[in-house]
Design brief:
alpha/beta, Rossmann fold, two-stranded parallel ribbon, about 130 residues, 6 helices, 2 domains, 5 strands
Length: about 130
C-alpha cells in the first residue's frame, strides 16, 4: 500500500522502476501530473475523479505534463452510462451462483464508522456489506 505524500510517482518507481501500465486517477488535476509520471511508456492514465477542489490547471503545457508515449484519457459517465449497466443480468447471475462475489465483511448500519475504516485500510478481504 502506498500513502500519498505528494510524490506517488517516486514511490511507484521504487517498486516498478519503469512505471506502471495503468493508473486510475480519482483525485483530479491536483495529482494528475504525479500520476502521469508514475506511468510507463505506452501506459494509460484515466482521470475519472475531481475531488481535489481544483477544476483546471494553472499554466498547463501538455508537452511538458504528459510523458512521451503515455496516454491520457478521461471518463465522466452520466446517467445514460449507468442505465446501460446490466444490473438485472448481474443480479440474476449472482442468484444463480454463476457470478460469485467475494464478501469480506458484513456490518450493521450502526457500525458504519467501522465499515468505513475497514474500507479505508483495505482490511475487508472482499466486498463490504452494510445491513440496514
Amino acid at each position: 500500500m502506498l500513502i500519498d505524500s505528494g510524490d506517488i510517482a517516486g514511490q511507484v518507481r521504487e517498486i516498478c522502476p519503469n512505471g506502471v501500465n495503468k493508473v486510475l486517477e480519482l483525485v483530479g488535476t491536483t495529482t494528475l501530473r504525479d500520476s502521469l509520471r508514475a506511468t510507463r511508456p505506452h501506459g494509460v492514465v484515466c482521470m475519472t475523479g475531481m475531488v481535489g477542489d481544483q477544476w483546471s490547471f494553472d499554466h498547463f503545457s501538455p508537452m511538458d505534463a504528459i510523458p512521451t508515449a503515455v496516454s491520457l484519457t478521461t471518463y465522466a459517465g452520466g446517467s445514460e452510462d449507468f442505465m446501460r449497466t446490466p444490473l438485472q443480468s448481474l443480479a440474476d447471475q449472482v442468484a444463480a451462483g454463476i457470478l460469485r462475489i467475494n464478501i469480506g465483511r458484513v456490518f450493521k448500519l450502526d457500525d458504519i464508522v467501522e465499515a468505513h475504516r475497514t474500507m479505508e485500510t483495505n482490511m475487508a478481504g472482499g466486498k463490504i456489506v452494510v445491513l440496514t
